[in-house]
Amino acid sequence: MRIILKEIISIEYIKSPLNYIGGKYKLLSQIMPLFPNNIDTFADLFGGGFNVGINVNANKVYYNDKLIQVVDMLEYFKTQSLEGMLHQIDSWIEEYQLSKINQDGYIRFRQYYNQNKNPLCLYTLICFAFNNQIRFNSSGDYNMPFGKNRSSFNPALRDKFSKFVLALQNKHCDFYDMDFKDLYTYNLKNNDLVYCDPPYLDSTATYNENGGWTVKQENELRDVLVNLNNKYIKFALSNNLATNTTLQDWVEQNKFNIHYLAGTYNNCNYQKKDKVTRDVEVLITNY
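Structure (tokenized):
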């Protein structure tokens, strides 16, 4: 096992317009230099807000996430006119009088989305939701409360959305909502890279609060990564050694590499069950 401390490199990256808990945007300057050069296919098994995949230099990107609503949204962004989408968002904002203070308008618009399930409507709704978070009930209806005095489709978010959409439309990207155990079998080769940013053990967030990420799933993912290694396919795994207490033993057993990253999630709502434990954010690789 090699233990590597990575120097931070300053580059301007595209930031996702989706606020995913645990998103890796702030760590991109440390993660990206650790990826190999000349990636053919980049498979993002837990795509989330797509902060990593949108910035990776690869011939093709597989985006995969269990939330079909987010998969559909990103695919919609890729196929629709940016100008047309901005015009539609502005029309909804005007029609429902969406703002930081109009909760009634937000509730009516949320009801409208839950009736039609339009992907761009969902994105607009998220912009005015509490902390811009994504959460659905068991019936598939969006149920985040209103983001009073905080959330809106402000100029900064509009600019972020525009830059992200243009970058996405210039990227060769395929979208999936498959189980993570299945996607990696898609004819991957030794010049491809599988990236994994799964929910972390002993943590809860809006996207994984119903049962969270289990030890069984963690072990299944580790089996996937070992199988990839046996096939000489490169992988990179984002995780946290402080909360995932068996991870370092697994790394040592398989002679993988640990890259320590500087950064925490202290300023977000990613709640660890043991709040006293210090973050030890790492990227684990087999190359």
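The domain at 81-158 is CATH 1.10.1020.10 (Adenine-specific Methyltransferase; domain 2). The longest strand covers residues 58-64.
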